[in-house]
Amino acid sequence: MKRSSTSRTITPVNQSFLRFLMDLTELLSVLIAIPISYFATKYLLHIFSYSWKFNLQEFSLFSMLVILSWYVFSKVTSMAKLPKPQRRLTLLFQFIRINFLNLIILIVLKYLLNFQSIPVIFVFILVPVSIIFTFTIRMLAFEKLNVYPVSGSNIRQVLIFADSCSEGIIKKFTEEREWGFNIKNIITGSGKIKDAFGDKIGILQEDADIKTLMDTHVIDEVIYSKGVINEDEVNRIVEICDEVGVIFRLQSCTAVVDSVYLKMTPANNKKRLALVDIPSNNMPVLIKSIADIYFSITAVILLSPLFLLIALLIKLESKGPVFFKQTRIGLRGRKFNLYKFRTMVQDAEAMLSGLHEKNEMDGPTFKMKDDPRITRVGKFLRKTGLDEFPQLFNVISGEMSLIGPRPPLESEVRQYKRWQLRRLSVKPGITCTWQIIPNRNDVKFEKWMQLDLYYIDNWSLAEDVKLLFKTISSMFLASGR
Fold this sequence. Notes:
With 481 residues, the chain is α/β, with parallel strands linked by helices. The protein has helices spanning 12-47, 56-79, 88-112, 120-144, 167-175, 191-197, 210-216, 231-244, 283-317, 348-351, 376-384, 391-396, 410-413, 445-457, 461-477; strands spanning 156-162, 181-187, 202-204, 221-225, 247-250, 260-267, 270-277, 323-329, 335-341, 401-403, 429-431. The chain has a 5-stranded parallel sheet with strand order 3-2-1-4-5, sandwiched between helices. Strands 6-7 form a two-stranded antiparallel sheet. Strand 10 (401-403), helix 13 (410-413) and strand 11 form a beta-alpha-beta unit. Mean pLDDT is 80; it is low at 1-10, 79-86 and 256-281.
């Protein structure tokens, strides 16, 4: 079904407001689903001659967990790529699959927190009822209001290599915003493509320096969409993408296919790059995203008394704000504000220029063992890693992950060697392999970068769990510096 041209003119401000209304309406639908599921459960139990020993306190607490789960899964599914408009049934199956995880989590929480008065059948009724309500609201929002769950950092910035046969696919990328693509530039020698899109999208010649372009702009994917594939050109582009961790997509210029990734596979005793199909929302990555938000929200709630105590100690020792805010570089060069508990005196940044000669790190990062700018409370917070706790809010907002390479400063990134830029190919984390090493500031900068790349290349959920427990252990042992 074609959307009206009027819906295409919705401004970004209106889009944000409509998204807020959609989230609010979804929340209300979940709130409505809870009593509906309650009465449905009570009715079914009555039919089979079972009584529900209702406990209002347990029911209220469990309902709060349901709302928390809805928030987590709503945020995670909003980051997922939507399929083409004619594949709404596929989206429903993806929606059900993701919410199946929600069902498992709610059942685990029921038994883990010993909610004896909550029947399991209530959870089995609640989840599908919530799916029906929220999915219907999303479909109405997509079809009638032109509101999509992609915005800001969730939009993938792409370069497209195109020729005269690519007009159709470029048009689709620009029109179907729910796919979540924003075309940064088109690299082409085709006059037809220049005439069709040159007034809306930057056109670059085929000899454009894409290395510099990737180094200076946020580029998530490079899409090669030509009628005739130039093998030498593809190999050159793949090497450039692989060097910095940018996704390469060999895309038909007539039809959209699911995401692919490049994998090293042996062929004739040599390692070659092969294109391998994967699901667009890889399950381990999805589980990591869910765990990040669940853990962070839970930690913020449980640690709020500790947060207040730390805030009080910081204010009692020195003038200045409780939190330190600093611009850092995240996924593929995106800028965001990182938050920490303030561990230095108020004018610490102004004092930095006089301390550069005392830098104990061999790379662009500044580290100093007895930094005179650090307060007494700050020294303890750094030693235990407690100063990093406010970054839980960065995780909740989707800018960071619990585990991943530490986010660098923009000034540091400008000094990176090109191979080091690949550490920006994943979301930055609160803790990483380097973070848990005793006396980590003694580690050479290049070794630090290699540790991060090893983590990226060998990532697994099991490895993340190990790093999380090691981080907690290092906090109690105060082995950081």
